């Protein structure tokens, strides 16, 4: 059994782009919050064929560059892309809802191929389905070109979550006015970073969004609310639960890699050959980085029915039965089980869309999306705490600006979240799969009667947002059903309030 290597290659490239700019003492970076599992152009055509793309029509909104200033340059416009599916909509006279999915750090083309929850449930609600692309990604790039938009801090400085939320607000108002759908309630949805945006949008723009479904949204992984090693602790738990011997093999493999690499004169050459790297390794840390990210990606996207963590562990544990008893042979068998044995592994070629998307997330994590993810001695990985000082220096060297690690909690909150949100927040679903390492920074308990948490023990990153499949397990079907019932209650209450308002005397 083997697991497709394409999603892994995407996220692995993210990891390597980040680490190549870091000082030797700080290799831990902020993993991308992608909801799509790392889809690349190599398998995009297949996914698009299955996404009913013909039901979506593409539109462009003349978006404002800067929503928060009144300087002359703030009024520059750019074309922001959004897609609408009218197939199931009941029309404006029915006050049928609008499902608005917020794009995150990827082009809409990739998101639309994977995300199916809004469309799968549109017929039930007679809903209009809208997908909005995040600024600076895909086709929604200001200043005429990506090269110009990303040129320096003066042009890239308009690239942040607050501007993105204001973009979504303008587009939703425009859609409702254009379609004469002022009475249609809006439900905003998002996965991962997009899930954070959805929950924040409900809090910042309650007059525009009736409710929000935030899938795998680690809104508490900022400003040291969540322990640094939460992310890697969940990964370790995933592997230990799959196999104790697999966990122990991985734990003991890191010094063994260094030992082989330091053996003269051909240590790195031996490792390159054994792990079939696409290019010769330059250091043992390079191989360790590849392996670390493979385990990370397998845990974050441990989707049924394969469950990639189990796939890797089956390869590692099965090596002994085939006569491979040394640690690195077992690790190698785990790599082959996950990535297959028909091509070179690690440090292979990338494509332009990967580089563009990674460039955007690099900026976001170096400005406001500062998640202090590190690891101590309690995980199966080498100890390496998050070093804010080194991280900030690298970001300043690259962009000429210093990260703002406290800004997210200043602007959106997060500390004492239950105490705060139960008093003024409402109509938010936080969904998480507990196999997802980012669930460690998610909301895992109800904050009030209407800000609820739905968790699944075997769920992974944004799994509930993906297109429904016949192979989906019963617990996933039930999770989605619970989410649908809650959204239905919001809309029913809205329609009741709307009727009461219409019948009330002036």
Automatic annotation (TrEMBL):
Any one GO BP annotation for this protein: proteolysis
Coiled-coil features, chain-numbered ranges: none
Signal sequence, start to end: 1-27
Domain of life, source organism: Eukaryota
Molecular function (Gene Ontology), one example: serine-type exopeptidase activity
Family, as annotated: Belongs to the peptidase S28 family.
PANTHER family linked to this entry: LYSOSOMAL PRO-X CARBOXYPEPTIDASE-LIKE ISOFORM X1, PROTEASE S28 PRO-X CARBOXYPEPTIDASE-RELATED
Protein name: Lysosomal Pro-X carboxypeptidase
Taxonomy of the source species: Eukaryota, Viridiplantae, Streptophyta, Embryophyta, Tracheophyta
């Amino acid at each position: 059994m083997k697991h497709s290597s394409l999603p892994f290659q995407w996220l692995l490239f993210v990891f390597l782009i980040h680490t190549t700019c870091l000082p030797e003492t700080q290799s831990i970076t902020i993993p991308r919050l992608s909801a799509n599992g790392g889809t690349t152009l190599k398998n995009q055509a297949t996914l698009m064929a299955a996404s009913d793309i013909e039901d979506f029509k593409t539109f462009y909104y003349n978006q404002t560059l800067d929503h928060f200033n009144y300087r002359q340059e703030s009024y520059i416009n750019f074309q922001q892309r959004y897609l609408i599916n009218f197939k199931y909509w009941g029309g404006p006279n029915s006050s049928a809802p609008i499902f608005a999915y917020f794009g995150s750090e990827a082009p809409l083309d990739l998101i639309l191929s994977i995300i199916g929850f809004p469309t799968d449930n549109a017929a039930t609600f007679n809903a209009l389905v809208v997908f909005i692309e995040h600024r600076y990604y895909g086709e929604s790039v200001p200043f005429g070109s990506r090269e110009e938009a990303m040129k320096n801090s003066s042009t890239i400085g308009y690239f942040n979550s607050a501007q993105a939320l204001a973009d979504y607000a303008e587009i939703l108002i425009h859609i409702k006015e254009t379609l004469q759908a002022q009475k249609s309630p809006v439900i905003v949805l998002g996965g991962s970073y997009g899930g954070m945006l959805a929950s924040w949008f409900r809090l910042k723009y309650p007059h525009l969004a009736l409710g929000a479904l935030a899938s795998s949204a680690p809104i508490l992984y900022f400003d040291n609310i969540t322990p640094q090693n939460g992310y890697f602790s969940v990964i370790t738990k995933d592997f230990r639960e799959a196999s104790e011997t697999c966990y122990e093999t991985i734990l003991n493999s890191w010094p063994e890699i260094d030992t082989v690499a330091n053996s003269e004169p051909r240590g790195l050459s031996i490792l390159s050959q054994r792990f079939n790297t696409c290019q010769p390794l330059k250091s043992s840390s390079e191989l360790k980085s590849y392996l670390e990210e493979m385990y990370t990606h397998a845990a974050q996207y441990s989707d049924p029915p394969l469950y990639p963590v189990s796939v890797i562990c089956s390869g590692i544990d099965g090596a002994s039965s085939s006569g491979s008893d040394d640690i690195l042979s077992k690790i190698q068998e785990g790599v082959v089980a996950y990535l297959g044995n028909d091509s070179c592994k690690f440090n292979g070629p990338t494509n332009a869309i990967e580089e563009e998307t990674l460039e955007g997330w690099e900026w976001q994590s170096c400005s406001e999306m500062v998640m202090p993810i590190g690891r101590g001695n309690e995980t199966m990985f080498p100890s390496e705490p998050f070093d804010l000082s080194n991280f900030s220096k690298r970001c300043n060297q690259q962009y000429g600006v210093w990260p703002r690690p406290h800004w997210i909690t200043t602007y959106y909150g997060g500390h004492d979240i239950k105490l705060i949100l139960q008093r003024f927040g409402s109509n938010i679903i936080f969904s998480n799969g507990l196999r997802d390492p980012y669930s460690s920074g998610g909301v895992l308990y109800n904050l009030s009667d209407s800000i609820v948490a739905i968790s699944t023990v075997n769920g992974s990153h944004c799994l509930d947002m993906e297109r429904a499949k016949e192979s989906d397990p019963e617990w996933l079907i039930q999770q989605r059903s619970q989410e649908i019932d809650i959204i239905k209650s919001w809309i029913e209450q809205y329609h009741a309030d709307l009727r009461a308002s219409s019948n009330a005397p002036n």
